[in-house]
Structures are given as C-alpha cells and as structure tokens.
Amino acid sequence: MTWVCLVILLALLEYSLFGALVSRARKQFGIHAPAITGHPEFERYFRVQQNTLEHLILLIPGMLIFAWYLSYVWATVLGLIFVVARIFYAYAYVKEPARRHYPAVASGIVTMILVLGGLLGVVLKLI
C-alpha cells in the first residue's frame, strides 16, 4: 500500500502544479478572481486543473479500494499511468485543445478500471 499512497501523493502534487499554472496564467493574462473566462489560453489552463480535479474525486478512492480488494501492484501501475496521461493531457490541452483526446481517454479509462475493479473486489468479498 505504500506505493499506492506514493502515487496518490504524486497525483495530488501534479494537481497542485496545475493550480500553480492557473495562478500564473491569471497574472499573465490579467484574469482577476473570481473570473474564470477572458483569455483562451487562461481558460485552457483552468480547464486542465478543473478536469483533473473531477478525475481525482474518482481516482483516489478507486485506487485505494482497488488496492485493498484486488491488487496494490495494479493499483500502483494504473495510478502511474493516470499521472503520466495527465501530463500529456495538460500539455496537449494548453498547446492545441483538439489534441487532448487520447490522454483524456487514457486517464478516463484508468479511472473507470480502478472504480469498477474496486467495486468488483468489494462484491467478490461479500459473496
């Protein structure tokens, strides 16, 4: 479980970095809080951060439950794939939003595998 926790912490640090990039983009493009629109590049940084948050809500408990009931090794591997996919997602979204598709799909698939796998593990434990 130590490796699972390490990957979760990496995902949280990645999310924090995305937040820092949003803050920098706010200053760079003169977007004052609470505004979340105003410059297309700022909006892309903001969407990377928000979309990552939307995934973390599923990823973290999914990883923990998957690790507990099925495999901590596979939870770790899948979590690392998620973190790497999010790096590619962020880069693609900021540079050319249309190119974000594959890394977005990859991180979405990983998240669903962890959540559904965790559910399967819990159900198997119950029966």
Q: Please, could you describe this protein's structure?
A:
With 127 residues, the protein is mainly alpha-helical. The protein has a single domain (2-126), classed as Membrane associated eicosanoid/glutathione metabolism-like domain (Four Helix Bundle (Hemerythrin (Met), subunit A)), CATH 1.20.120.550. It is built from 4 helices and no strands. α1 packs parallel to α3 (72-95) and α3 (72-95) packs antiparallel against α4. The two termini are 24 Å apart. The model has no long low-confidence stretch (mean pLDDT 97).
Which descriptors would you attach to this protein?
127 residues, mainly alpha, 4 helices, 85% helix
| Estimated share of beta-strand residues | under 5%
Question: Level of helix content?
Answer: over 70%
- Euclidean distance between termini CA atoms: 24 Å
Largest sheet: none
CATH architecture: Up-down Bundle
H/E element order: HHHH
Radius of gyration: 16 Å
Q: Strand pairing plus helix content: what structural class?
A: mainly alpha
Overall geometric form: elongated
Count of helical segments? 4
Number of E-state strands: 0
CATH superfamily membership: Membrane associated eicosanoid/glutathione metabolism-like domain
Low-confidence stretches: none
CATH topology annotation? Four Helix Bundle (Hemerythrin (Met), subunit A)
What's the CATH class, please?
Mainly Alpha
Mean pLDDT: 97
